[in-house]
Amino acid sequence: MARDVKPLRPKARRDLQEAASASNQEVRYPKLEALVEEVLRQMGEDPTRDGLLDTPRRVAEALRYLTSGYGKNPADVLNRALYTVAYDEMVLIKDIDMFSLCEHHILPFFGKCHVAYIPNKKVIGLSKIARLVEMYSRRLQLQERLTCQIAETINDTINPQGVGVVIEAQHLCMIMRGVEKQNSVAVTSSMLGVFRDELRTREEFLELIKRPH
């Protein structure tokens, strides 16, 4: 039999309504919006014309989202997903979608990240590896630095036998400007522990990321 549900008291109802209103309220970044508006003017545009009226707000929101990795740290991402497991074979997460902004031109670069490690008693929850890639990607970056940060964080967190990270990415600063090479792909790698020291382990990793699903 269903139980009677007592109506909320007025104060509790008000608290819920205020919480819902706050969650639906837009977060604005007025200083950043003003800077975007000035950039539009410097480009020769008119920020007051219809098509651009809301552009400063949208750009400010997008930039805050795309650089949200600055407000996070690896401990928050990984520490609640570390497990003790008697497993000493390679763990590979391949084809992680990666999107970032080049620190030189603040133009996007994007592609795939492949992460592998050989545990030493501890493993990381699989989804947290993707979260780690996302955290470091959502900052102004160099692909080389990004690759090393992911590898070194995993190495420092669980002290595995080794870590391998490979990123394959296209850079809009090369595709849209400069040399304008539309089909160019930058590949970077970071190999630590047995991935650096043992050729067979490194070759196995590189071969696995080439295989189709």
What does this structure look like?
The chain is α+β, with helices and mostly antiparallel strands and 213 residues long. The chain folds into two domains: 10-66, Orthogonal Bundle (GTP Cyclohydrolase I, Chain A, domain 1); 80-210, 2-Layer Sandwich (GTP Cyclohydrolase I, domain 2), CATH 3.30.1130.10. Helices cover 44% and strands 23% of the residues. It is built from nine helices and seven strands, in the order H-H-H-H-E-E-E-E-H-E-H-E-H-E-H-H. A five-stranded mixed sheet has the order 5-2-3-6-7, with helices on both faces. A hairpin with a 5-residue loop joins strand 2 (91-102) and strand 3. Helix 2 packs across helix 3. The chain is elongated. The model is unreliable at 1-7 (pLDDT under 50).
Brief summary of the model shown:
With 213 residues, the chain is an alpha+beta fold. The protein has helices spanning 10-24, 30-42, 55-66, 74-78, 126-137, 143-158, 172-175, 194-197, 199-210, and strands at residues 82-84, 91-102, 108-118, 122-124, 140-141, 162-171, 186-193.
